[in-house]
Amino acid sequence: MLSFESDYTEGAHEKVLQRLVETNLEQLSGYGNDHYTESAREKIRKACECPEAEVHFLVGGTQTNAVVIDTMLAKYEGVVAATTGHVSVHEAGAVEYTGHKVLELPPQDGKIDAGELEQYLKDFYGDGNHDHMVFPGMVYISHPTEYGTLYSKEELTSIAHVCRAYEIPLFLDGARLGYGLESYGTDVTLPMIAELCDVFYIGGTKVGALCGEAVVFTHGNTPKQFVTMVKQHGALLAKGRLTGIQFDTLFTDNLYRKISRHAIEMAELLKKGFREKGYQFYIDSPTNQQFIILENYNMERLEQSVKFSFWEKQDEAYTVVRFATSWATKREDVEQLIALL
Amino acid sequence: MLSFESDYTEGAHEKVLQRLVETNLEQLSGYGNDHYTESAREKIRKACECPEAEVHFLVGGTQTNAVVIDTMLAKYEGVVAATTGHVSVHEAGAVEYTGHKVLELPPQDGKIDAGELEQYLKDFYGDGNHDHMVFPGMVYISHPTEYGTLYSKEELTSIAHVCRAYEIPLFLDGARLGYGLESYGTDVTLPMIAELCDVFYIGGTKVGALCGEAVVFTHGNTPKQFVTMVKQHGALLAKGRLTGIQFDTLFTDNLYRKISRHAIEMAELLKKGFREKGYQFYIDSPTNQQFIILENYNMERLEQSVKFSFWEKQDEAYTVVRFATSWATKREDVEQLIALL
Amino acid sequence: MLSFESDYTEGAHEKVLQRLVETNLEQLSGYGNDHYTESAREKIRKACECPEAEVHFLVGGTQTNAVVIDTMLAKYEGVVAATTGHVSVHEAGAVEYTGHKVLELPPQDGKIDAGELEQYLKDFYGDGNHDHMVFPGMVYISHPTEYGTLYSKEELTSIAHVCRAYEIPLFLDGARLGYGLESYGTDVTLPMIAELCDVFYIGGTKVGALCGEAVVFTHGNTPKQFVTMVKQHGALLAKGRLTGIQFDTLFTDNLYRKISRHAIEMAELLKKGFREKGYQFYIDSPTNQQFIILENYNMERLEQSVKFSFWEKQDEAYTVVRFATSWATKREDVEQLIALL
Amino acid sequence: MLSFESDYTEGAHEKVLQRLVETNLEQLSGYGNDHYTESAREKIRKACECPEAEVHFLVGGTQTNAVVIDTMLAKYEGVVAATTGHVSVHEAGAVEYTGHKVLELPPQDGKIDAGELEQYLKDFYGDGNHDHMVFPGMVYISHPTEYGTLYSKEELTSIAHVCRAYEIPLFLDGARLGYGLESYGTDVTLPMIAELCDVFYIGGTKVGALCGEAVVFTHGNTPKQFVTMVKQHGALLAKGRLTGIQFDTLFTDNLYRKISRHAIEMAELLKKGFREKGYQFYIDSPTNQQFIILENYNMERLEQSVKFSFWEKQDEAYTVVRFATSWATKREDVEQLIALL
After folding, report:
1. Which residues lie across from C290 on neighbouring strands?
2. Which residues of D159-177 are buried (b: 16+ CB within 10 A; e: fewer)?
3. Contact indicator for A173, A142 with CB cutoff of 8 Å
4. What integer is the mean pLDDT of B163-176?
5. Which ipTM was obtained for this model?
6. Contact residues, chain B, for A23 at CB < 8 Å
7. Average pLDDT of the residues of chain A
8. Which of residues 53-112 of A touch B (CB under 8 A)?
């Protein structure tokens, strides 16, 4: 059975695992106070060209979103996000669970629009008293988005400018950041993200690690007593080495970028295959997630030999499904899939 | 430098790591819906002699405590625990963060006393109206406790009887459960725990795993939509294989018990060494954590060559410190330590 | 200065106040355990033709919404409401503060549509797994809505049917319920609301009381330990007599209905005035809140002699404002206002 | 039937009620933006001799405690209180519901001791790392305490000094503040409280008002967006006039002090009666709450003709009960009670 079900169907990149094995019996202090974690921090600061960055490691994406959003917001604030944002719809209300509202803006291909954001903030701070409303205290974007789309440098810069004008931090969810950075057409780089965002995370779970996300506070803005609040959220790993060693490996010899590039190459191959066979795309995605509109009978036929994800019903006859590639995708699997189409 | 700093200074048992390597490229569904996780569940059910048990895997201890307590309590309920309980004092208020009070009972060597528990519940449900108070909705015990002590079969049975009489679930925090089960003098077994408790967890982080705790609901009492609430807490691992494969290995060929036994043997060796050199014990611990009262100058001397944990000041001249053994402790390290005393 | 700023600019109806004075020195038990509160409960049960109804008194609208929603939802559930619903937008995130998401549906003149609700629920429970999403656990509607509009008997019945089909309780926010019940064209009655809704509240603050809302659970469905949770929310009035006596008076001799009728008459007079002077209505409201589109220069002119509320900017030249009548509105004030137009 | 059940068995002082009647039809803006509320604020500032004080009105005591504590604490902080403190034990977990732990100190006659507080803080910030513990972020005291006892000037000053040394705000719960200020032997004044505390509240519910507590932030330290957070807690009264007019009246012509004095005189009369009849006091209370140890048969006898509150069982034969006087207590009622003893 082929599988393009998600980008987390395999374990970790072999070098990551090998490093865990090599360092296994070294005795290290817990909670991120070990030299591998410190080394990973330093390598990430270098990759971001951001020497003042503060880097913390958490376990998974939803956890990271909830912890970052909750610890950065004042109690009377909410987070602005696209209606399709992961925090809005697919995290079981983890943000609301921390007491904060997700203030939703209409999405444009999964993204928020700087102009609409500005209008929203202008209205909020404009006429009338808004003391009875949730204050916008942060802007959340995902890059790539939940639909595989990417912000351009210009779009990202515009959003950052609006955020700065209103003194609202910008948070970028990079659960699949590697796949965004290695997308063929992107003009957005890691240092640019570090410069434009107040906080972002570099996803490991979907890009070569067993688990782990690296949160980067870009200008000495880690919330006070952050570690205590991470503990309070049940998110502090006793064996911090687990995330530290993995990220140290991923940021050695450009591994994170290289394996992300592979996923993009596989996605482009897969896209080409679907396109040549005349399939219809739900959205034009330049990253590792591809959304295809399948006729139901064809979907059922394909399900016999390949796993993919149900996304949503298009109508009675058609269904939108997702095929995901990853760092672990094999070329022959893509070729077999294309042969099946 | 020797280290007896904690029982989480090494990575994972070699067999656990080896199994992660062997299965690494197998494509598996996420969120615990893989066959290794299912196999681990089945092995745990067998080890507990509890075929109807429902087993879920979480990442760490504080997270597990917060998730289990929050999902099992009604909104108007709190959890009863010893003042020294981990949930009371060392989890940064993770339980309160979920909106629930920890109702503290005075500890007896780290344990709660069935008689005191009964009196507390009798008073609560006795004279007067208690609608303005937090209702006791669960009893939390740790076994081993935070001081390394253990409940006897009789003590545990008495507490369970009180809980049943008042229809309050009993939750056992087994972060170091292996070390409790393998303690020389204990008469408490895993099936007994499964019979007496409503929910408990088998700790992996401190007993051979990189991370992971196995939560066991013993009689079909998993809270409704538990997975959704795990996600809401940011505690749902995308690559559920990580905990599934580790616990599957730990519960193969009795590995969990064997490596726990080793830690106990090392602790007994260490105890013997301290005792023979005339050191004073803060508490009589039959498990892997040993609390020693050191004269300050001697503590500073030892710190030159061995790592251990500060516990608390005894007085101006003496300090209580902890030495922990684990599945990974080397006999020669214990011997070297004893030579240093 | 005339004022149509809101329906809470005066104190209480004189009979309400007089009753507070008459009973003032009677010694009564606290927290709603007094005979006036019990009498108010009984009168409300009668007015609702719902003998099994359980009635609780709270202080204000936002508080009531938060308490009812939080105490009725499971932890993994959210409340479905119109995007324009009071809970969605004007309660400073009070619902999210209790840990629950407001799941927003597009509004139709401030109302939710039974068909859209059904489609939403059908999608949620249909294809795909929704364990990572917030479960819809309650439907919230306001009647009158925040735009003064009303559900018809047919609309309300359809929504109730959808709720029952999906076993989701229906909650009606009646902050201005009197003005809905006395609207000229309505075919919705209080007994009908009691029959169709699982819980609703009869607003006092905006309809003749100094403060107070009467929450009605219609079929023995008061959440367990409700009083404890009310206390936990800081919403339990020590002097329960304050709300009990007020509602007892409002539900004596049909007072609640009579004073509501007056507000409607005043609103109709005001509407007629605006209409005859050629003003444009933002929405067709059959209740006590009237939304008018004013040219900005005219708005500024009127502001010299009359208070009203800014609602939203229509465009650069026009603004939507609200004029509210109430039980206390004087006919001569309406006439003076019309003369000013 | 005589009643000494509590200090909230009557409505409001007649002057308070009369003022509500007189101002009833005046049209006023909501949410505390009216001139009576502003006048009340000014009078309280004067009574406190604290011109920079910021005064906000809330409805009840538990609500006030939860709002003040939650809005002043950082997310990683808890509030230090006596184990017997109202927030610790009789508010249904309202503080924990906001996500914050109550850090309990052993009580001395209902009070906390400056020395024990200092030791606790010294230990917390002393040896060892406390990142896994809840940070002490505020000190809560009640004056009078839940046992009717009072801090002396010296005790209060000592506590304030410890708080300042550790930069932790001091919060005084004055639900019964009038009765503390008018106690015969006290050397604590309102201006002194305003000088020593960072925030405190002047209780209205138990001292002459229908409802209402006046929160005083003493040095421009009202939390940012406080009104929004009050709304978020469901604690913002639409008709702010209700609390504003009541406090304006209570702080006119020294009314608050005069009626408090009456309650103290009645309490002293009652104490004298109990003492002369040889009754045993549970605690020596200089304020309006008196705790008496009654033999059970005598308690049952008294219950035939007088209401009082069960406090706790002393042993099998004796029970501790509370008799409360208030601004409304009639001298003849106290005399009748004494005759019954």
Report:
1. C323
2. bbebbeebebbbbbbbbbb
3. yes
4. 98
5. 0.97
6. 11
7. 97
8. 59-67, 91-94, 97
Closest C-chain CA to A311: C128
Per-residue pLDDT at B127 exceeds 90: no
Helices A255-276 and A241-250, axial angle in degrees (round to 10): 70
Residue pLDDT, tens place only, D226-276: 999 999 999 999 999 999 999 999 999 999 999 999 999 999 999 999 999
Residue B14 has phi, psi (to 5 degrees) of -60, -35
* First vs last C-alpha separation in chain B: 15
DSSP C210: S
CA atoms of A259 and A325, how far apart (whole Å): 11
The amino acid at residue A337 is L
Flag whether pLDDT at A127 surpasses 90: no
* Per-residue tokens: D5: 């059940």
Q: How confident is the model at residue D127 (pLDDT cuts 50, 70, 90)?
A: confident
Q: Which of A101, A103, A119, A318 to mutate to test the interface with C (most CBs of C within 10 A)?
A: A101
> Please, how many CA atoms are within 13 Å of residue C214, restricted to the half-sphere of its CB?
36
Q: β-pairing, C135-142 with C77-82?
A: parallel
Indicate which of A59, A96, A205, A225 best probes the interface with B, i.e. most B CBs within 10 Å of its own CB.
A59
Which residues lie closer than 8 Å to A184 by C-beta, 6 or more apart? A264, A268, A286
Above 90 in pLDDT, residue B129?
no
Angstrom distance (rounded) from CA B130 to CA B122: 12
Contact C234 D66 (CB under 8 A): yes
Is there a contact between C225 and B99 if contact means CB atoms under 8 Å apart? Answer: no
Tokens of A209: 């690690």
Contact C76 A93 (CB under 8 A): yes
Q: How high is the mean pLDDT of chain C?
A: 97
Residue-wise pLDDT for C26-37, tens only, equals 999 999 999 999
Residue of C nearest to D24 (CA): C11
- At which residue do the structure tokens 């939507």 appear? C320
* C340/A83 Cα distance (integer angstroms): 45
Contact C127 A97 (CB under 8 A): no
**Angstrom distance (rounded) from CA B79 to CA B86:** 12
How far does A154 lie from chain B, in Å, by closest CA?
Answer: 33
**Helix (DSSP H) and strand (DSSP E) numbers for chain A:** 14, 13
Query: What is the structure's pLDDT at A66?
Result: 98
Q: Chain A: residue nearest C101 by CA?
A: A96
d(CA D87, CA D173) in angstroms, rounded, equals 10
Instruction: Copy the structure tokens of residue C189.
Output: 């009655």
Are A231 and D132 in contact (CB < 8 Å)?
yes
The shortest C-alpha distance from A24 to chain B (Å) reads 5
- Strand pairing category for C289-295 and C318-324: antiparallel
Instruction: Give the one of B24, B93, B237 whose C-beta lies nearest to A11's C-beta.
Output: B24
Out of D100, D127, D310, the one facing B313 most closely (by C-beta) is: D127
Number of residues that this document lists for chain C: 341
- Tell me if B93 and D104 make a contact (CB, 8 A cut-off): no
Mean pLDDT of C300-325: 95
Domains within chain D, CATH numbers bracketed: 2-7+256-340 (3.90.1150.10), 14-254 (3.40.640.10)
What does B55-102 look like in DSSP terms, one character per residue?
A: EEEES-HHHHHHHHHHHHS-TTEEEEEETTSHHHHSSTTHHHHTT--E
Contacts of D71 in chain A (CB under 8 A): 75
pTM above 0.80, yes or no: yes
Alpha helices, DSSP H only, in A61-152? 61-72, 86-89, 94-97, 114-125
State how beta strands D135-142 and A213-217 pair: unpaired
Structure tokens at D314: 């002393």
CB A246 within 8 A of CB A210: yes
Distance separating alpha carbons of residues C90 and C269, to the nearest angstrom: 29
* CA–CA gap between residue B36 and residue B27 (Å, rounded): 12
